[in-house]
Each structure stands twice: as C-alpha cells, then as structure tokens.
Hints:
Blueprint: E1 9-10, E2 13-21, E3 25-32, E4 37-44, H1 46-49, H2 54-66, E5 76-82, E6 85-91, H3 97-104, H4 109-128, E7 141-143, E8 149-151, H5 156-165, H6 185-188, H7 195-211, H8 221-230, H9 236-239, H10 245-254, H11 266-274, H12 281-284, E9 288-291, E10 297-300, H13 311-330, E11 336-337, H14 380-384, E12 394-399, E13 404-408, E14 411-415, E15 417-422, E16 427-434, E17 445-451, E18 457-461, E19 467-475, E20 480-485, E21 492-495, E22 502-505, E23 507-514, E24 521-527, E25 536-541
Parallel strand pairs: 12-18, 19-25
Antiparallel strand pairs: 1-2, 2-3, 3-4, 4-6, 5-6, 7-8, 9-10, 11-15, 12-15, 13-14, 13-16, 16-17, 19-22, 20-21, 20-23, 23-24
Amino acid sequence: MPDRYLGQTLGKYRVTRLLGAGAYAWVYEAIDQDLDIPVALKILRPEFAGQNDSDVRFRREAATAARLRHRNIVTVRDVGQIDHTAFVVMDWYPLTLGRRLVAAGRLPESECVRIGLDVAAALAIAHAGGVVHRDIKPDNILISREGDAVVADFGLARALAGALAGATALSATNRILGTPHYFSPEQARGHEVDGRSDLYALGVTLYRAATGHLPFEGEDWYAVARHHIETAPTPPRVHVPELTPAFESVILTLLAKEPTQRFQTATQLLDALGALPTAWDRDRHPIAVSDRTADAWSAVPATQPWSKHGTAAALFAVTIVVAMLWYAATVRPRPRLTAGTPTSTPSADSPTAPPAARAGRPPNAMAAPPAAPPETIGTPHARARPAITARSEARLDVIAPDSARLYVDNRLVGTGRWTGTFPPGARVVVRAVLAHVATNCDAAVRDTTILLTSRGRMRVSLPVRGCVAVSVDVTPRDARVLFTPLDGGRRVELRADSARALSLPEGRYQLRMQAPRCVTGTDTITVAPTANGMPITRRFPLICS
C-alpha cells in the first residue's frame, strides 16, 4: 500500500504525505533534512522493484533525465536505492495541469498556447539530447508559481517500459505502459517511437485543455487505442467555436495518424505556436496566481478566451498582426533617453541582460558600444530616421526601488527610475531586477508589456522586493500554516513540516495555523533582512486536546 512510507525516512528524506499513485510508482511530498526544503519523492513500487535489473534501468534513465537542464523541465535532485527501494527526488510543485483541468474544465486559448510553447520548448531540449518522454499528459505537466508549464518524468517511462515489458504494450501483469488516452498511433501498435510520438501526446493534451474533452474515449484501453489508430478526431471548434482556426489547425496537425504528417520537430511546433495571434496574450495578460486550497494554488487566467469572429475576420487579424510585427522589427525607431534619464548610464562593461528572465525572451548579450551617443539607444534603422517630434511622441516613466536594475526591451537603461519617449502605438517590454538576490525569489523580478496608445505620458511601477529566509516551527507537524501578506502579494499555504524552510518576499504577514483538535493560532510577523543574515525563526506550539 502507498501509505507504507508515510512518516518514514528514506536516507535523508522524511516522507510527509502521498501526492499520487501511478501504475509503476508512488509520489510523495518529503522533506530534504539536509537542506530543510520540500521535495517530490518518486518511489518505484515494490512489485516492480524486485524484478531483474528494473532498479538499474529506473535509476539509469532517471540519471539521464537529470542531465536535462531547462526552465520547463523539472530538476532531478537525486537518484538512489536504499533497502531495495529505488527512488528519484525532484523539485516539488504544488499543482499539475491535470488538477488545473479538473478544477477549471477547460482553459482559454491563450493559456493553452502558453502551455504548448512551454512543453514544446522542453521537448526540443530533450529530443536534442536523445531523450523521448513517452508519457506526455496533464498529470506529468507541472505548473510553477509564475504559471509556467514544467514537464516531469523525462526518461522514466522508457525505464519502466524496458524494465517491465520490453517493447510490448502490456506488462506480464497486463498493466498498460503509458496512458492510453494519450497514446500515439504508433505507440498503440506497439511500435518503436520517437519524438513525434511526444508531439502527438501534446496534441491530445492541448485538445483536452482547450475543449474540456478528450479526442477519443472507449470502454477499455483496446477501444481507445483503436480510435487513435483508425478514427479522425472531432475538430476542436465543434466543442468550442470561439477557438481560432489557426490554433485548431495546429492541434489537428499534431494529431495526424502518420508521424510524417505531424510537425517533425518540437522546434517546428514552437514556430507554429509562436506565430498564433493568441501567443501574444502571454505578455499582455499574464496568469494571476492565488492560493485557494489546502493542497494547491490555482492559476487563474486574467482574461477570457477570444470570442468567435469568423474565418475571414480571423485571417484579417492575423494579417494585421504580422504586418505590425514586421514594422516593429524593421522600421520602428527605438526609444531615446530624455532629460529625465538617470545620470548612472550603463557603460560598455555593464551587464545588458537580466538573469533568466521569466518572460522567456533570450536576453541581449551585447553591451551598448562605448562610442554610441549617450542620448540614444537604438538600431541603425532608428539612427537613419528623422528625430521624433515632441508632438508625435509618447512618454514612458518607469519607477522601481532605487537598487533595482531597469531593462527596456531587454536592454539595461539604468537603476531606480527611467524616462523615455516612443512613437504612439509602440509596444515596450519593461523589467525591473534586484541584483544579488536568491534565484528562487520570485518577487525580485517584475516585468510587463506596455502598449503606448496615446501621445500623453504613461507611468508604470515595478515594485520588486527581495526575499528573506524564514523558519516557522509549528506543532503538531500536520498543522496547516497560512501566510497572508499584508503589503500585497500571494498567499502561501503549506504543511508545518514545509514551513520550517521558506523564502518569503519582504513585508508583513498574518499567520493562521490550524490542525485537527487544536485551537487555531494567529500571529503577525515582519519579514525583513536580519543584521547577521540568519533566517527569521519563530516557534508556535498549538494548544491541542
């Protein structure tokens, strides 16, 4: 039974609760007692661990997955075997796309496109490294607190398939390898698969996310597998008419029966998804995140999906967007600094790109040439054009804490405050970054995209904050601890075990601690850097019967 490991210690990992049970493995939330952080612990089920060389295959493929490094691929922290128990340790995420769909039914097209871009980026990295996932599905797609999709279990499906059943579709105990509803036709036939099989499974995932329906259902896995091989899927717009024809075309291409008729690489899929008009909604309308349940937070789309305009209107909109993008890339002048620009202008050896920006754009690694005039930041196109007159320009003010580095269109422009001018209608990406802050401090980076729609003045505030280590010791250990920020930000809710190692944005928080048969405890703490740099430590024993 999966609860056999609850409360047990496996090496340095103390198991706190069961997260999920699959056909081949159990997944737990555990505490890394050396680092005092929560992790996801995947344990090979005992009935498979005893088979010949299955443990070796499991660990070897997990080690292969651990070599994959990308922001959309879950980090494998450890692989090992203790007392005949094979396990893999990964970063812990509180939400999966599967649970998101259970709660929401279906997602807006812009969010589906965002998930598709993230998963395709992960697949491009994995396939380039010779790793095929073989089990892409919503439960294997995790959602970060920024709303990014992170793919888990790379290589593990291959390890289990090889260890349990060779190249057949069923194991000796008739367990299905993979998830039938997400099988590719070649996988359903029991043939060898390549990266195009992963793209088919991603097509099924996007179909499910966009419509709320699976493309194929059946009474048993044989019936479902036969549909994958023989039956054409119902077009997604039959279920959801407001989906754009272009997005529907991408999904149907992914679901082609023959691998040669699909996108041949994940990079081709990235290009197709990135060309969709709704791909831009990722920048204009980021996903807002809030904690809603005791076990997971929910990502809530800030906008509704596009309404139906008809095929002609959709094609016209695509044409307009492409024309605007061409104009922005080849003709539009870049901003020039005005008299309001800070005196601390970047030098040639200044960093010119923020670290691992969450917006997903590749940073500009080139510094501004020393010989460039200090009043301009632009391209050769911008220098060749006449100067913008005062009557035709829109002014943008960016405000952030004094120590924050400011980036405009991925170019460092100063710290604290910045003022620039642009032609009306310009689309400008601004970002504030606090330097020398832990990489897991989400509050230390804030970015947004501004559309300057008038010739007036627009002001944008980027209130970035640093993070501080916090240790809250609450007893009993199964208590739930809720941190509610009083100065703005996201709520955080977790078990008392996990509250012993936190990184919280600076500010004031109200604490609420609850446990069965205990009096609810409340308190207020201020999270601010300590003089000695040590974590803020608080102890709260609840009164229990």
